[in-house]
Amino acid sequence: MKYFSILSSLIVVGLGCLLAFALIGSYVDANGFLQEPFLLLPIGYLFIFLGLLGFVGFGVKHLLHKKTTAEATRLH
Q1: CB count, 10 Å around CB of 35?
Q2: Domain-by-domain residue ranges, the chain?
Q3: How many helices (H) does the chain have, and how many strands (E)?
Q4: What does the alpha-carbon distance between residue 59 and residue 42 come to, in Å, rounded to a whole number?
Q5: Mind listing the pLDDT tens digit for each residue in 10-63?
Q6: Nearest alpha carbon to residue 54 among 3, 12, 14
Q7: Are 28 and 34 a contacting pair, CB within 8 Å?
C-alpha cells in the first residue's frame, strides 16, 4: 500500500507542476526577454513518467510472481 501512495504522489506532483506552469503563464518583460517557469515542464513530465513506470514495473512484477506461484502449486 505504501508503494501505491508513493507512486500516486509522484504523479500528483507531476500534474501539479504542469498545472503550475499553465497557471503562472509567461510574459515578455520590458527588455524583450521571455519570462516563464520552463523548469516546471521537464520536472512535471519526469515525475509523471517515474510514477507510471513504477506502476508498470509493479504490475509486471505482480504478474510474474503470480505466474511462478501458480506453476509452483501445479507442480506439487
Answers
A1: 12
A2: 2-75
A3: 2, 2
A4: 25
A5: 999 999 999 999 999 999 999 999 999 999 999 999 999 999 999 999 989 888
A6: 3
A7: yes
